[in-house]
Structure formats: C-alpha cells, structure tokens
Amino acid sequence: GLVPGLLNLGNTCFMNSLLQGLSSCPSFIKWLEEFTAQYKTDQNESAEHQYLSLTLLHLLRALSCQEGTEDDVLDASCLLEVLRMYRWQISSFEEQDAHELFHVLTSSLEDERDRKPRVTHLFDVHSLEQPEITQKQISCRTRGSLPPVSNHWKSQHPFHGRLTSNMVCKHCEHQSPVRYDTFDSLSLSIPAAVWGRPMTLDHCLHHFISSESVKDVVCDNCTKIQAEGTRNGQSIENQRTTFVKQLKLGKLPQCLCIHLQRLSWSNQGTPLKRHEHVQFNEFLIMDIYKYRIPVHKSSQNELHQKHSEETTPGTKDGIAVKPSDAEQPSGTKPLFMNGACTSSFLMSSGTFSLAAFPECSSPVYLYRLMAVVVHHGDMHSGHFVTYRRSPPPPKSPLSVSSQWLWISDDTVRKASLQEVLSSSAYLLFYERVHSRVQHQSLELRAEQ
C-alpha cells in the first residue's frame, strides 16, 4: 500500500512534496493522459524530455503506482531540466516554495497547450477572388491537407477555475458588469483569530469573499442621472461614489488547490510565519461560495412558478433543498460548517449519500480531500512534507483509498486521517465528487 519516495537533490523537498500531492489527483493524471495523446505518434525518443506534460505524466503515474517500477526511490531531476527548457531557472540548492512551483507547472502547461495552433490553415484568398466555378457553387479550398485539431488541446487543466468580481454603487445601486478572472489555486489569507474560537477553513473562505468598500469610483449611472437633471449646455463632472466589491467563484474546478497564506509581516517590516492550526476536513462543501446570476424581482415570481412546475416542491434541479438555501447571504452562518463531515457519509460505491445531510440541502459542489502539503520551520529555512492517499488497488482503479500516507522525500509511512486533519496545512488538494443524483443526471445527458 506504499508508494515510491523521491530523492532529495539538495533542497528539492518543495518539488517532491508537490509531486506527491499532484499524484493523488486522478483527474489531473487523466487529463495529462488525454493531453499527451497526440505525442504518441512522435517517433522521437527524446520527446519526453522536450515536453513538460510527458515528463510530469511519467512521474505522476510512477508515484501513483500506475507504471511498474522496482525502484523505492525515484529521481525527479528530469522535471527541473524540462522546466529550464521552458526558461524557468529553478535552483535545487536554494530554498523554494511549493506553491510557486505549482503556478510554474500550471502556467507552463497552458503555454504548451497554446503553442499548438488553434487554426490550422487560412483560406486560399486568391482562389476566392478568382473562382474557377460560378458563385453559387463556390467552395473554400486549401493547398494541402488539413491536420485534425484535437479537442484536448482546447480543454483547460482540471485546476482551472474562474473568479467573479461584482461592483455595486452604494448611492444608486447600479451594478457594473461582472468581471471574470481565472485562477488555478485559491490563495486564502488567515483572518485574525478570536480568542476561544478555533480557526476553520470556512473562516478563511468567508474572509476571501467578504465585501469591501472601494471609494472614489466613477459611477456612469450617477453621472447620467445628474446630467438628466441639469440644463442643456452645462458641463457635467463625473460623479464619484463608493462601490461595494465582492468576489465569488464563477466556475469551480474539478481539482481544487487551496493555498493558506502563512506569510505575515511584523510592525518592523520583517517577515513572519503564522503557525496556527486551521481546521479543515475530509470533505468540503463550496455551494455557498458559488456565484449565482442575480434575478430581478419582477421576474423572480415567474421564474419560481415555472421552476415549481418543472420540479417537485422543495427541490432544486431535482435535489431537495430548503427554501432559505436558494440564495444565502455570504455574511450569514452556513447551514453546514466545513469541518463536520466524515467518511461515514460516503456510500460503498464511493458516491455521496444525499440522505446523510438533511440539514445541508444536498450539496452540489462537494469535494474530497486528496492530499495536504505541510511546511515545517520558519520563513528562512524549513522542510516540506506531504500527506496523501494511498493509490487504489489495480482491480478497482476508480475507487478512493481510505489509507493515508506521510511522505518526506524518500521516507514513506502510513498515517491516520486524524493525523492528517491535525496538521498545519499549507496546500490542500481537493477533488470534486458527485452525488448519486448528479451521477444519474450525467448518465442521462450522455444517453441523450
């Protein structure tokens, strides 16, 4: 039930811990397999050393016991070599950060994907200007064959998500267009602790999406209203008001990486590390952090009436919910605090039991913990270790193992879930799981 360790090449615990964490995310490995499918036709034996995706796939498959290897300790120096080809100069003898390397890997994979041309050929403009056939029968022609464009080149990696930024004027309540920004990890600051109250992952997430006031912002709507109330010919200055800004999650990824910011600064300006424990759990519910398109009051009753005709009362998309759960304010206490769910709520098939949560309205965006990266030490020196799940047995590759492992470079031992949840996490790797109703819905869509 153990996995291979990784050789420390100097100070490469940052890389070893990240690779062990990524190797416990099956969706990411599956995406790499689809992403690198077109390289199989490449007859060049050195192709693996040219592409980051192939090098990363080979390492992750070996660490997840999907490739036969007799070595108890693997050498991941090939990853640093291929990153240098991508113009990343990462020294293995200096202190590095696992979260920064995660960004290097995701951004390099995106660059590799974008290097493949989306549009293979331009139309032959000359033949269109002087066609050899009549206009009614004209067709587009190219010189040479059209190579097929694979779909996996267009697909984003499973850590890709989108943030929404919402701005509302306090004076006229005018809402600016929603802005979308991409992310590959959620970097959460740890709010100030309240005495006698444990810090949870929910507190960090609520702090991340909490609204903030932005002063002295030009409001086009207030300026327009002011212009309508003045005489013609008078110059109108841009009206500046205070806006309320709030972040939400517009698109949640299949694999969710959460980075807990443990860097802080003292009053003298020196960097400090925050060592406090942030409570997290094996399961994470993200429904209340998901952005929902606002519905106008005039059309809300019509939408509710139409929705009640399509589904039974007290349901949402066929899943039972409470009426108050539809639009829950971000500042209110969630019905389900992340940190109270255990593995006993999972069915034997690995799917999520809807009946296990009568009080939390059957979550749609449910995530299962796959790995935890922990940093020991201070801001100047330290060591990265990883807690990760043991790979599933070969006979049932789709199952999820309940056995946890503690890995420090080339040292691997078994660990308990309680030990994992008691650690001071730096990086958390979650993977989305679907309920039975969602599985049935996906199967129904596939049949249609």
From TrEMBL:
Listed GO biological process terms? protein deubiquitination; proteolysis
Keywords noted in UniProt: Hydrolase, Protease, Thiol protease, Ubl conjugation pathway
> Recorded GO terms, molecular function?
cysteine-type deubiquitinase activity
- Would I find Protease among this entry's keywords? yes
Taxonomically, the superkingdom here is Eukaryota
Q: Which Pfam families match?
A: UCH
Q: Which reaction does it catalyse?
A: Thiol-dependent hydrolysis of ester, thioester, amide, peptide and isopeptide bonds formed by the C-terminal Gly of ubiquitin (a 76-residue protein attached to proteins as an intracellular targeting signal)
Q: Indicate yes or no for the key word Metal-binding.
A: no
Residue span of region Disordered: 299-332
- The segment(s) forming the USP domain are 4-433
Give the EC number(s) listed in the UniProt record.
3.4.19.12
GO cellular component terms, A-Z: cytosol; nucleus
By sequence similarity, the record places it as follows: Belongs to the peptidase C19 family.
Q: What is this protein called?
A: Ubiquitin carboxyl-terminal hydrolase
Organism placement in taxonomy: Eukaryota, Metazoa, Chordata, Craniata, Vertebrata
